[in-house]
Amino acid sequence: MVEGVALEDLRGAIDTHVGVSDALIADHKIRIPKLFISDMDSTMISAECIDELADFAGIKDRVADITERAMRGELDFAQALTERVGLLKDLPAQAIADCLDQRIAPMKGAKVLVETLKAKGCRTVLVTGGFHQFADPVAEQLGFERVVANRLAVADGRLTGGLDGPICDSGTKKATLIEEMAALGEGAVALATGDGANDIPMIEAAAYGVAFEAKPKARAAANGWVDRGDLTAVLRLLGVAESDWVLG
């Protein structure tokens, strides 16, 4: 907690002269948030779902390159998403279940973070530029109460190469945070976590915007960061005693 110092100046000084791997900077006493809203891929889970799904179509390298550039903010998200989904046309829908089973695993500490915050009275929302077909089971496994995501279109047992419904992008993520905060009422604070350029508006809008092992642009936009370790570091930054963590 700091007073009388611009947060961006303090952040720069910490990064330059101290170089800590975990930090959370605020201009008020840090308290437990009433809303936790998080990205999914490479934040709550250890993979990028679309890249792993593309591996089942034999085009992982091609898709992963587009994903990386989009996460770094070098490509328009909607355009990059549409292009990647189009490359998956005619992939059997069964590949989604196979990918979930074989490739998708929670990030270490994810369930402890979610369940502990819920036990402290925090509402939890998973919002992702990924897909409901992955996000819904991940949310159930980790304990998230709401999911906002894209949906892969499927017909006759195969991916069509398109999406079913509107695109969930950076604007959607920020709008979801604002909507949830309005429902919680005055005085509530939000925690947002993410790792890519698509998470920046959400991270900036939260009282505590934490970049988890993030791309440079996302990290620069955050007032908190975790560069190594696992997601329980976020609980430590919030001052939650380990004895209060919900394990298992």
UniProtKB/TrEMBL annotation:
TM region(s), chain numbering: none
Enzyme class: hydrolase
Pfam families to which the protein is assigned, alphabetical: HAD (PF12710)
Superkingdom of source: Bacteria
Gene3D superfamilies reported for this sequence: HAD superfamily/HAD-like (3.40.50.1000)
Signal peptide: none
Family: Belongs to the HAD-like hydrolase superfamily. SerB family.
UniProt name for this protein: Phosphoserine phosphatase
Species name: Novosphingobium humi
GN (gene name): serB
